[in-house]
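Changelog-adjacent note: as of this version, every example in the card shows the full chain rather than a window. The one below runs 662 residues end to end.
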Amino acid sequence: MENKTERMKYLVSVLNEASKAYYAEGVEKISNFEYDKLYDELLELERETGTVFSNSPSQNVGYEVISELPKERHESPMLSLDKTKSVSDLEDWLSGKEGILSWKLDGLTVVLTYEGGELVKAVTRGNGEIGEVITANAKRFDNLPLKIGFKGKLVIRGEAVIKYSDFEKINEEIAEADAKYKNPRNLCSGSVRQLDPGITGKRHVNLVAFALVSAEEEGKEPDFGNSFERRFDWLSEQGFTVVEHKKVTAETVREAVEYFKEKTAENDYPSDGLVLAYEDIAYGISLGRTAKFPRNAIAFKWTDETAETRLKYIEWSASRTGLINPVAVFEPVELEGTTVSRASVHNLSIVEELELGEGDVLKVYKANMIIPQIAENLSRTKSIKPPRLCPVCGAHTEIRKDNDAAYLYCPNPECPAKKLKSFALMVSRDALNVEGLSEMRLERFISEGFIHEYADIFKLDRFRERIVEMEGFGEKSYNNLEEACRKAADTELYRLVYGLGISGIGLAGAKLLCREFKNDFEAMRNTDEERLKEIDGIGEVTAAAWVRFFEDPRNNAEVDELLKVLSLKDDSEKDSGNTASGTDLSGLTFVITGEVNYFKNRRELQDTIEKLGGKATSSVSKSTNYLINNDINSTSNKNKNAKKFGVPIITEDDFLKMIHLK
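Full-length structure tokens:
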């Protein structure tokens, strides 16, 4: 009993620390797989011993919030759901009743209150009893209606989420490998709980409604016919994005689970399972609740498909910031229909916790059926140690601590890996866009001594004969590269600014600075922190990083050399006929769908809207001003929603006329 009790204390400590980091700080200290495994072990020990500690996660539903946002107590507690990994349990749970099966979204739960048809309050789940008031931030969500047709008091619950597609775009704009966000959930948590709503607005947060708590107008509730599904339909009519769901019975729930499982890979909303609720609202309420769980719904967690494999080695991948990332390379295995052979280990602390060694037998899985992860090390030989020397330049490595996790760094400022990543960013699509100059080619040119600084990218003609003779090259390849460099040299200032890789300055930030300083680069690089912090969207950390970058004479000298070989055009003027000067789209929100003809792609059309002061979002809501779709008669969901909300559907030609280009 004593050993079991000590084990329980240990499990409670580990799980509580992980939950606190996850819910209050947006940090994932252990994987969902490992958390569920430890939690299930704790429950079993509690059943065996009959002992339950007061601070056990089986008795608590959350953690106190720690930010500076105002706090508020929920009218009714927000409990966790009991969970299962067995479809048979779902069949038994229904007990002949109908149910509604939907995604269990992986974001941040928010309670929204509307009065008189307007959003008046938004509060996070917090610890289930007390949440943080984030009303101003919620008003910046991409798809949330600020006004609805229902004029009574409405309280709903929804999940604030950032789509995978938006998450990837945001991460692409972050130059530093160690500054990139680990997953959409972490990014969403930080975005929703910002003290500056402007930052929330730039993160493309979406709200997906999953429950109607109460709706009352003139003392009575709308007629939902005691139906959970009809509540969803009604919320959709009010303009809310409602979680995808299916009506099921014990006979059809297994088929529905398979439907959602197959759709997981293409689902743009992060999800970590499913939720099953009774269709009969009154019946569900009559079942009451336990101390921790309501009885009207149950969560279904995916049973992660695991596979055993053997670790070949750890690849230490150096980044341009100096961070050296450990990546596990193992014998290929099939998981969720694809072959995987690599998984990020994230940091040194995890390498040590897993006690990894070459040849160890690993259990691997795909987190949420998408991201390869190591679930367990069955051998634990501990033979792998962090390299004392940088694998690229040979400099002595350093171990640094950040939030109790250890990371490996190369401190050498002249490390070729740092230069390679810097050059790769500068020639990337959103920066100078030098087509054909891949990271592999850059690495070869750097090692041959062709490229030492940015300007050298546009002076490769000095080494024409040697390049033509290189393996994989020839006259045609060289000519194509030369033409790509020529085109790239005619560019906009914001592309150069973004390509410099200054911490915190992504593509949107680069455009913002160029607009603020009217493309006066000298004024931009000679400004001070106070001036930068006056700009909406530029915080203290980013302002300091900008000033620090241009305080370094070497950085200024390298930029000056680059400016000599570039021809900067004013992107406020017409660009190949794609941008109209004098047109102001400020305050207007557009959604783009379908094929485009005039613009190269939808990204170029979005850039045009943003250059003219407008906003382009991904989904149609009541706050959308125009839907751009060349197929006005399409039966797509975006067209249907536009018609439902009275949003004008315009063609590309209509838009061009609007901005005076036709």
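Structural remarks: The longest helix spans residues 2-24.
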